[in-house]
Write a structure and sequence with these properties.
- By secondary structure, this protein is of the alpha/beta class.
- The chain folds into 2 domains: 27-98, 60s Ribosomal Protein L30, Chain: A (2-Layer Sandwich), CATH 3.30.1330; 106-262, Alpha/beta knot (3-Layer(aba) Sandwich), CATH 3.40.1280.10.
- The protein is built from 9 helices and 10 strands.
- It has a 6-stranded parallel β-sheet with strand order 7-6-5-9-8-10, with helices on both faces. Strands 1-4-2-3 form a 4-stranded mixed β-sheet.
- β5 (115-120), α5 (125-137) and β6 form a beta-alpha-beta unit.
- 34% of the residues are buried.
């Protein structure tokens, strides 16, 4: 959880090494990385630019993005600093999102493939927001939400997600229909429920996968469990046999991230 950041100081005689983004990273951070991403024809889908930037390099990147039809959004210094993967003493002036289109439709998400999450039956906007944020941070391609929320509750969920929907598709769906569409597109469906027999690290979480987590009270509906190709269970050793919703999701999200990074 990145609610704060310890800033580092550099010795004046030490030249920093060029930072290469980690394998699978969807962010390019700073003018140099974003320039290199454009030069390499990486799949940039969004620029986030510091609102007060006077850097000619940022202006050049912005012009390239606008010429290519890539959306450019402005953010405050603190917003960009909070989003940045690596900032040192000063927030970067530009970030680029690569490999994921936050405006992709449900059909486009499934056609592209990857890892998507389904949240089925959660009731509390804050919990829903936390799961959306966990999915985005762990590199998921989209989140589908099958929950009975009104408009104001949906807005509250997106606020709780730190507005992660700005950088990842979030679709409010009929869960059963979304599962049928995912299967028709070649996705394997894996549920996370206490009725499961396999541990997450014994499941294959690579390839095109839809992961399902259920609501706080009733869990995953029976018809969705029946439609799943596999049900995994998070081990529990304490007296209270229940995790909070985002805890098991986070366990599986990190395990999926590990497996998929190992496969690169």
């Amino acid at each position: 959880m990145r609610t704060s950041r310890v800033k580092t100081s550099r010795l004046p005689w030490v030249q920093p090494l060029y930072y290469r983004p980690p394998s699978g990273s969807m962010q390019r951070c700073g003018v140099d990385e974003v320039s290199d991403a454009f030069d390499a024809d990486e799949e940039i889908s969004l620029l986030l630019v510091r609102r007060d930037s006077q850097n000619p390099g940022v202006a050049r990147l912005r012009a390239i993005a606008e010429e290519r039809g890539i959306p450019v959004r402005e953010g405050s210094s603190s917003d960009v600093w909070r989003m940045a993967r690596d900032t040192h003493d000063e927030p970067p002036e530009v970030l680029a999102l690569v490999g994921r289109n936050p405006d992709a439709s449900l059909e486009e998400v499934l056609e592209r493939g990857g890892l998507v999450w389904m949240l089925a039956g959660a009731r509390y906007p804050v919990n829903i927001g936390f799961t959306i944020r966990t999915a985005e941070v762990s590199g998921a391609d989209a989140v589908f939400v099958d929950c009975q929320l009104n408009h104001s509750e949906r807005k509250a969920a997106l606020r709780a997600s730190m507005k992660a929907h700005r950088f990842m598709p979030v679709h409010w769906v009929d869960g059963s229909q979304a599962i049928d569409s995912a299967k028709a597109s070649g996705f394997r469906v894996i549920a996370v429920e206490d009725s499961g027999q396999a541990d997450p690290w014994d499941a294959d979480l690579t390839g095109d996968v839809m992961l399902i987590v259920g609501g706080e009270h009733d869990g995953i509906p029976d018809d969705m469990l029946a439609a799943s190709d596999l049900v995994v269970r998070i081990p529990m050793s304490g007296f209270v046999p229940s995790y909070n919703l985002q805890a098991p999701m986070a366990v599986v999200a990190i395990e999926a991230q590990r497996q998929r990074a190992d496969g690169d």
